[in-house]
Amino acid sequence: MNYSSCSKMKNVPLGHKTSLLANKTLVFDFEGVLLRSTSLFPYFMLVAFEAGGLLRSLILFLSYPLVWLVGEDQLGLKIMVFLSFFGIKMDTFRIGSAVLPKFFLEDVGWEGFEAVRCCERKVASSKLPRIMVEGFLNDYIGVEAVIARDIKSFNGYFLGLFENKKASKSKTHSPEAKEGNDIKYIDQEVFPYFQKFCLTLSSDERRNWLVLPRERYPKPLIFHDGRLAFRPTLPSSLAFFMWLPLGLFLSIFRFIFGTALPFNLSAPILAFSGTRTTLSREHEHGSFSLTQKDEENQKGMLYVCNHRTLLDPLYIAYVLDKPLSAVTYSLSRFNELVAPIRTIRLTRDREKDRETMEKLLRQGNLVVCPEGTTCREPYLLRFSPLFAELTDDIVPVAVDVKVSMFYGTTASGHKCLDPVFHLMNPNPSYFVKILKRLPPSQTCNEGGRTRIEVANYVQHEIGNALGFACTSLTRKDKYMVLAGNEGVNQKHGGSFHSCQ
Fold first, then answer.
1. pLDDT 10s per residue in the chain (500 long)?
2. Coil vs helix vs strand at 323
3. What is the DSSP string of 149-218?
4. Do 306 and 377 form a contact (C-beta atoms < 8 A)?
């Protein structure tokens, strides 16, 4: 079913059935109506790896022939639940809200999504455990209830077994959704054309659905956690386990040569190992130069960049080929110890941090990431305006990273392993674009701008250079979504704005 035929469906008059449907609660099967894939294995592999670690995911992978033999729908499902959840601590499990939504959205079919949107009130049923799907269905699909099974627990740990009682419904936002005579199934109430591409499609037809475009997401996907950057299907999981030994060797190799040698010597070696670094510069105009140093105030240049991974300052120092200091908020002691450039830890005390950065600027060039945390998606978090007060010699730097297997960032894992995971990718790519130095009219001292105006201007310049959307979200917002701490839980429905 191609989208052209789906578009024609929108022009068909719905008649009294559509009017009747608008007043009912639509009940649909999550896996059969929304998802393009037919296998649930990738989602359990994500749970096993992200919550249980490498050994658990390897056991699940090796057990898949048994799962396939008995069938994923019945006994095989129970096997995957047991292997993925047994012994996992309940109060720290956030995979369903922090990791899986990204992969669910990438697997949602456009046709199925449009079909579900026809009803204002929706109830979803799922074969997956409630803790895996409820967050996604509530936040992104807007369902009022989730019919799914819970997992038994003991003393705060999952036992990996389904509860014996029948599937229960989560709390609904509307009491009418609980009334039995108010629930209508999608294949009973929607007109025949809808039936063809929602519930009566075969597995092969569903796999041919179009992927839901990012611009059609019910709300923007800005934050997500987890180490795996790929969908762990059976073939890709096999490639993953085969790559691990070589990937670990490459990570150590790249780390040693990248930190022990000057960039002009290490760059060819790193490129030979598969890494890619692209440098782009905007030409300077007017009386100020990118590399000039203000002799009057004896301060170095302040490079302000967005934050993609822990290695951002290191790559900027390499491509500029000049000594730089970097200030950080949450750098691990190990990474601080082995960093080839000078790193200084900030305290989040505004006055102390300002004194620290002013001192560093008097000693030379400084790079700062005012977002305060990393963001994986094409969005920029709000820039802290502290840097704007320090100097007028500000150079924005736009940074982007492309990976295919591992994310080099984490909100809930071990941050000391961030560079290791980034360098384990087959072809990690870094894009660094040095923008024009801020014109005097856009600075605090010479231009009379407020520090917030300067911070917003720099954010928009970097956003435009990368094609990213600027947001007003902060580090606390990110960690509240992904880790459940540091900040008040707020809905971010309209909190992002374009950088146009």
1. 333 333 343 444 433 444 555 556 788 889 988 999 889 999 999 999 999 999 999 999 999 999 999 998 889 999 999 999 999 999 889 999 999 999 999 999 988 888 888 777 888 999 999 999 999 999 999 898 899 999 999 999 999 999 886 444 555 444 343 443 344 344 433 333 333 333 334 566 666 788 999 999 999 999 999 999 999 999 999 999 999 999 999 999 999 888 888 777 888 898 999 999 999 887 664 444 444 444 444 578 999 999 999 899 989 988 888 888 888 876 667 666 667 788 888 877 888 888 888 998 988 999 999 998 999 999 999 999 999 989 999 999 999 999 999 999 998 888 889 999 999 999 999 999 999 999 999 999 888 899 999 999 999 999 999 999 999 999 999 998 888 766 333 444 444 443 43
2. coil
3. --EEEETTEEEEEE-SSPPEEPPPS-GGGG-GGGEEEHHHHS-HHHHHHHTS--HHHHHTSPBPPGGGSS
4. no
Which three-class secondary structure state does DSSP give residue 104?
helix
Q: Which two tokens stand for residue 191?
A: 């007109």
Residue 287 three-state SS: coil
Q: In 3D, which of 123, 120, 125, 109 has the Cα closest to residue 216?
A: 109
DSSP conformation letters of 460-472? HHHHHHHTPEEE-
The angle at the Cα of 355, spanning 351 to 360, to the nearest 5 degrees, equals 150
Q: How many C-beta neighbours within 10 Å does residue 187 have?
A: 16
Position 463: which residue type? G
The domain ranges of the chain are 3-216, 234-497
165-183: b or e for each residue (b if 16 or more CB lie within 10 Å)? Answer: eeeebbebeeeebeeeeeb
Q: Residue 116: how many CB atoms within 10 A of its CB?
A: 20
What are the strands of the beta sheet with 429-434, ordered from one edge? 276-281, 429-434, 394-402, 302-305, 366-368, 325-328, 342-345
- How many angstroms separate the CA atoms of 361 and 382, rounded? 23
pTM for this structure? 0.84
Least Cα distance to 141 among 122, 169, 162 occurs for: 122
> What is the DSSP annotation of 331-400?
--HHHHHH-SSEEEE--S-HHHHHHHHHHHHHHS-EEE-TTSS---SSEEPPPPGGGGGT-S-EEEEEEE
Q: How far apart are CA 170 and CA 138, in angstroms?
A: 10
In 3D, which of 282, 257, 286 has the Cα closest to residue 270? 257
Tell me the residue ranges of DSSP E strands in 70-149: 121-125, 145-148
CATH 3.90.1600 applies to domain 234-497:
no
